[in-house]
Fold this sequence. Notes:
159 residues, alpha+beta, six-stranded mixed β-sheet, 4 helices
Amino acid sequence: MKTLDAPVEFKDGTAIIPDRKTFREMSYQGEDMSRDTHLTDLEFVKFQIESLDSGDPEVFFLNTVNYQTHPRWMQEVGIVWTRGGGNGGGKSRGEIIFHPHVTAPNGQTGVYRWEFEPNDNFAFDDVQLASEVMARDMPFLRNNLLYYPMPSTQRRKFV
């Protein structure tokens, strides 16, 4: 059961991305990136995971056409904004970027790379759980969801 009092309308986001078409409809791709300039011209959808530190985390996918920043979206849907992740607050956020020309582990072309916000720092178990929750709620994926640890604070956890 989702933590929000009311369902999220598609104009704001969704709890499940059932297919590639929906991912495309929710993704932003363009040059107007005042923040997150590393996403310029890439097709991406932002996500928010609540209760990552519980046994039942919940993921929300932002309609990134309408919301390119997490705080603005969180204010709109009634989630309390906290700064940073990996600090025991049970919240995590980041983005899923589609790379149409990269070969996935299953041999097919097209991967979805996900990452937390640049300064977030999560343990391996949290990364694994976040990946499983996103894969569960993006049922069209077929072994083509890849985690990208960024920046160096996260890379140190895996070395």
